[in-house]
Amino acid sequence: MNLQKILHEASVLFQQGNFQAAEVSLRKVLRKNPTHTEALTNLAVVNINLNKTDSALELFKKSLNILYKDQTFKMYIQTLSQLKKWDIVIEDVQQFNKKNDEWGLLQLAIAYRENGDLEKSIKTFDEIIESSSQNIDTYISYGFTLNKYEKYDLAISVYKMGLSIDPENFILNYNLGITYANINQTKQSVEQLEKSSKLNSNNFNLWITLASQYAKLRKKDLAFNAINECKRIDPNNTLIQFQEATINMNLGKIDDAEVTLKEILKKEPENVETNYHLGLIKLMKNEFENVMPYYRYRTKREKKFGKFDDFSLPNLDPSKKILISWEQGVGDQFLYLRLIDEFTQIYKDVTYIATDKTEDAIKGLYPKIKVIGMTEYSSNIPQYENYQKINLATIINYIPKLKEKLNKNNNLEGLDFKNKLIGISWRSDNKKIGSEKSIDLMQFEKLFKYKFDFVSLQYGEVENEIKQFNLRTSNKLDVEKELDYFNDIKGLLKLISKCDLVITISNITVHLAGSLGVPTILLCPKSQGKLWYWYGEKNYSQFYPSVQILRQEKDRCWKKEFETIDDYLKLKNKLQ
Hints:
InterPro entries: O-mannosyl-transferase_TMTC, TPR-like_helical_dom_sf, TPR_rpt
CATH topology of the largest domain: Serine Threonine Protein Phosphatase 5, Tetratricopeptide repeat
Number of strands: 10
Number of domains: 3
Distance between the termini: 109 Å
CATH architecture of the largest domain: Alpha Horseshoe
Largest sheet: 6 strands, parallel
Pfam family, one: TPR_6
CATH superfamily of the largest domain: Tetratricopeptide repeat domain
Keywords: Repeat, TPR repeat
Strand order of the largest sheet: 7-6-5-8-9-10
GO molecular function: mannosyltransferase activity
Helix content: 40-55%
């Protein structure tokens, strides 16, 4: 039997797509010589094409154990990676990659990443780079890893290292632009994406991202030019319509956005992001009875909201126990809890799972419901097995005529400044829209000429900012030095409760002040950065009757709104 002739016949059959006949020929060779590594490797490749992946993996490994070959090793590891068998990738790279060559180490770093072991992944990537790697794939994969785990500053450094080797590499330039977008450095993102577009003008994802970044910079014409490039590349892609809709949402054109999103659903009824954004629009319009068929898709997003799977909007039995889980940000939790009194009028036996950080504060605000922290729940899951389970925002689905029941406004005109204490908050750390909501502390300076005491309600690293501010004002902004503003929500509530008035942007402060019923002025951005619960034309919050909303008239300009506050404080100052 001429084994080489049979191997050649098998190769021809494989190239012709006759995989079963190729398999028969290769098995003839292996019956004659069971350790023929070329036949073992080729049969593994054939089995992959026959969807016999388990057999293929066994054949690859048998071949490697007889005689290590780089090509066989790479095909084996690539197959394992495609099957997402990361534990085996880690084990076998360590077994066969004795020389620690760069390709093997790169696969090991990727496997650690996909297995959730970021520390080992970073350590392996660093080991490769320290060997003066010139392999661009290493920098691309390392940057992607850091992006995935939201280590954006490190990702930027890695991409720049790669670009120092290959400045014209499209993927490195594009991924760097995406990273800048992730940390809301929009100008840098646009600059990098525009450079990428000159390297490759036919990348759909580039143009769709560039459209959103132009929109953030209020460059509407350029945004729609980028959309037109998307239409040139892939005219039937529904992401085009979705991006048009989100741009219109940011421009405040809610009706136009709604029409476009509904058009997408005609083609893709289960499109998660489209349904979710339609839910947001229904919330913006206070169409609460129509919210949940769309907003329930928040539980299916890549970064889903909610601990429980309540997508089906289950029928709740008022006579049985109900377990409600927190979801979304801290402020959102306090907002949705404003509906809990209405909910418990129908459903009496409710237990709420709070984050450990908010547990004590929520217990104080809502003594009628049982509140437990996540740690307590995680330690006693079987105890709640028979409870009906929903996520917090889903309670909207179970309160009839919600719009009619929301609180009406409580005017600030009769406010009596007993303590002469005003609390202020000016910054949001939200990675996506924080910069759109935040206001430079220096813009509050003119308010400090009045004879009130001012206290900071701002969480985060603001010590230097306050120090510089106080150098410019005779009336100082005080700080409660013993208070952990970020973690001690109960302590922050106590401080807010002492204030006669709170002046704040849209962050956790407004939700805490509103929950306490403390008179509050909310500085609300015109469009971008405005959350669904601040929409509408009225000057008060329907969720928080003590919150008056000052709506920005001119985009990115707070001059008129601060003049309004100044007039208000001037009047109150005269009455003291």
